[in-house]
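User: We ran a pulldown and think these components assemble together. Before we commit to crystallization trials, I'd like a predicted model of the whole complex to look at. Sequences follow.
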Amino acid sequence: MIEMQDVWKTYPDGSHALRGVSVLIERNEFVYLVGPSGAGKSTFMKLIYREEVPTKGQISVNGFNIGKLKPRKIPYIRRNIGVVFQDFRLLPKMTVYENVAFAMEVIEAPKRMIRKRVMEVLELVGLKGKVNSLPAQLSGGEQQRVAIARAIVNNPAVIVADEPTGNLDPETSWGIMNLLEEINFRGATIVMATHNKEIVNTLRKRVIAIENGVIVRDEPRGEYGYEI
Amino acid sequence: MRFSTLLRHLREGSLSLARNGWMSFASISSIAISLFILGVFLLLSLNVNNLTKQLENQVQIRVFLDLEISQAKIEAIGRSIGALPEVSRIRFVPKAEGLEMLRRNLGEDGQGILDDYDDTNNPLPDTYTVEVVDPERIAEVAAKIQEIGDADPDKPIRSVRYGQGTVELLFRVTNAVRNIGLIIVLGLAFTATLLISNTIRLTIFARRREIGIMKLVGATNSFIRWPFFIEGALIGFIGSALTTALLLAAYNWLVQSLQVEFGLMMIRLVTVWESGLLVGGVLIGLGTAIGIFGSALSVRKHLKV
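Assistant: Here's a predicted model for the assembly, 533 residues in total across the polymer chains.
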């Protein structure tokens, strides 16, 4: 599903975010990306959803060589990748319903289909009763559920989550993890960057550890491996 | 684009106008104020143009005929002059009328000078008063009329006068006034464009996050642009329509209340009905265009990956 071959990423200021990363993530895998802050986790994620392009090396996602993609084609690739952030990134002036429907309007889905699918997804994330609320009226956990609903509404093959529980209390975090597991169970490949030791060590999945832009550890059903 | 998508863009464009209440208000006010100033100068320069045109149209050629020519010859000369394509109107002023006019012009003080003259010993020649289609080419036309006289062996035209020297000066002044007016209006239009597009740029900068999220969920650039276009067009249209309505209402009031005073000075202001279409067209057209281009340019900047 996601394949990187000797990927380097050097930012204009000369810092090497990634230095020769090669990895293969299969369809329907659930991967934790761990490592200290600034190790290259975010760059790793950004390369997957084509926010950044590699300085060197190749990345393919869902069979497309996305490093060589024409800018015009980028939106179509993104429709098959759902992205979730630590800070939710909802549109503050749109209701819960509008925030989720938005991702479907973008792909020009028929209105009736949007209605049906958005309600379906909001039910899955447990927010069917809050369709008309604004993000500011929701708790952090609820906002993250909206963001997840938006990420999965178009049935993407890949979900990229950059510290999705980073701003949430432990109990709420577990709710989000259950949701991600459910989405993974339904067929999506999930790559999740996290600093949450408890989650990684309890909900055992493949763990890829990055330090200084290099993969230092890649274990199936691994452990978090860092203190705190 | 699908029809439903177009509807979506229209709805989204007008909705975000409401969602971004204060920013929309700022943009609309900025458009309204800049265009109001432009509109005031536009009306001012329309009136100056109108006034100079009235002045120019008062410029006439006077053709003085020889004292000793026959009635038939007078009529023939009149026909020849009237046949020139550059001539818009020709009027025969018999010497009796000329004397009468001279008496009127001299007023009470001058009465005595002309007392000895009457129809039998009128010293004035018969004349033709000629108006031309294009006042700026008056010298040319005067020369042509002189040629008509010179071609005739009887030399029936004694002289052709059009206020040589004075007329040329008048045209230099009116042209200068018109050009200055045009420069001011163009300068203001340019300033208004800058001011408005800057405000729109700020509104869009405040929404770069929104654009970022749109890109993230896979919106194509044109899909992102459309609602902004529509919003920009609406902002431009609302701002300029408001300003046009206010400006024309105020101007109408001004024209009505100054009618008597200016009428006495023989000055006629351009009415709202004559200027409304032009002023409204320029302001609303410019406002809407700036709204669209302002947002198009600013969105473009944020769309770059």
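Residues 221-264 of chain B form the longest helix (44 residues). That may be worth checking against your pulldown data before setting up trials.

User: Thanks, that helps.
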